[in-house]
Design goal:
about 100 residues; mainly alpha; 7 helices; elongated
Length: about 100
């Protein structure tokens, strides 16, 4: 009888663990989706590096394509611009947010 109780508690504990793990996995979906992070997505903004630092710099077509893609998900774009990768790249947030309006519309 004691072995059955131990097995039952083990199975119950395992079910609770799996349930909690699944809940956290579902909640882990970030602004840019579940398979990426803003820091990873920020690397895609490499063609915009100069335009995100200098308001007078021309914006490449590659930059426009990337920005237009991210503009479809404003929460992701905001998270990207506030990411550590964007900050370390020297992006000036005040300049970077003007790129779509300045050159890509």
């Amino acid at each position: 009888m004691g072995a059955h109780i131990k097995v039952m508690f083990f199975v119950l504990g395992l079910l609770v663990f799996v349930s909690i793990s699944e809940i956290h996995r579902v909640e882990a979906t970030g602004e840019c989706g579940s398979s990426t992070t803003p820091d990873i997505e920020a690397r895609k903004l490499a063609p915009c590096a100069t335009a995100a630092r200098d308001p007078n710099a021309s914006v490449s077509q590659g930059c426009c394509v990337v920005v237009q893609t991210f503009c479809r998900n404003p929460k992701c774009l905001c998270a990207i611009l506030l990411s550590n990768t964007a900050k370390m790249s020297g992006f000036d947030l005040a300049i970077a947010i003007t790129i779509p309006k300045r050159f890509c519309l």
